[in-house]
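PROTEIN DATA CARD
Card holder: Aminotransferase
Chain length: 403
Origin: Hymenobacter ruricola
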Amino acid sequence: MHISVARRLAHTGEYYFSRKLRELAALNAAGASIINLGIGSPDLPPHPSVVAALAAGATQPGAHGYQGYQGTPALRGALAEFYQRHYGVTLDPAGEILPLLGSKEGLMHIAMTFLEAGDAVLIPNPGYPTYRAVAEISGAEVREYDLCAAAGWLPDLEALARTDLSRVKLMLVNYPHMPTGAAADEAFLTQLVAFARRHHILLVHDNPYGFILNETPPLSLLAVPGAREVALELNSLSKSHNLAGWRVGMLCGRADLIGEVLRFKSNMDSGMFLPVQQAAVAALALGPEWFAELNATYRARRELVRALLRALGCAPAPGQVGLFVWAAVPPEYADGYALSDAVLAEARVFLTPGGIFGSNGRGYVRASLCQPEGVLREALDRVQPAVILSAAKDLLTPEQLPR
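Structure generated from the sequence above:
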């Protein structure tokens, strides 16, 4: 019996990394020993105090039952204090903060709360693939706005303003930007808020990377005057506190908008595991020494990853923020897919092709910093002879190539 799939999934494929991780697992099962520099899943542990809080919480009577949909008052209070301390943003923990099972969940909740057929949504090209997926699933029309290296990977708001924005209801923005690592300053965020206010567009700012390898204080869009009227902000402890698998995110902004998202969310899931909430409170209380130690590790790794990319003839841009290095591929490769395939085949190292993030990323690859230095050194060693082999392919017959 054939069961048809809902039309809402017609243009939405399986997430790229879901497919790719299966492929890499099959190669590893066959003995390939792939070094995966693709996905940005932190390999470092949380702070010991955070793990201790989780363990202690799990022994409490009643800790394993259903939890409230809005999170505990203690967690919301810790999130509000975190925003005040790091961003200078005052939030009412009673109504302006909604804990999430990861910010990816929040993207879906926002799309299903505010978007429907007939609406249009602006998404970045290149940008996080989930932005497109949630917009398509909601039934809205997807409109890309171009980002490019020449403009610092910032949108041309004046050019956007000259287009028909009458049906645009929502704009997804993400700074520091993934995959390019570009940062936005306060002046640009101020322009963005003015643009949204002028065109009656709801901004959704996805902000999980501000604490990783950022040489300036992290910024919140909600700190911009007037932003509360037109913006919601997603944030996460996945990258900043090494809690990716714990699924701790948050949505911040106007209480009435948060309440509408809660209306959808409360029908889709239950509250976060109580010991995870208690551990998140401990994580949010960590001081600057936590981020200093974390970034010292990532800084050393970044030098190795840049060396690896340069060995492949790629050009990493300076000043990138976050867990990745974004680099232009050399002209002898058609695009990032071709380079990624070649390096995987020849060196057993996986790099993410930039084209998965949109057409403006096709000439790039992205490498993750989420591997220990020893693994990154091995990847660099593997790549060095692979470069020579790749250059020799045009000169040697198939019989002459090493096996």
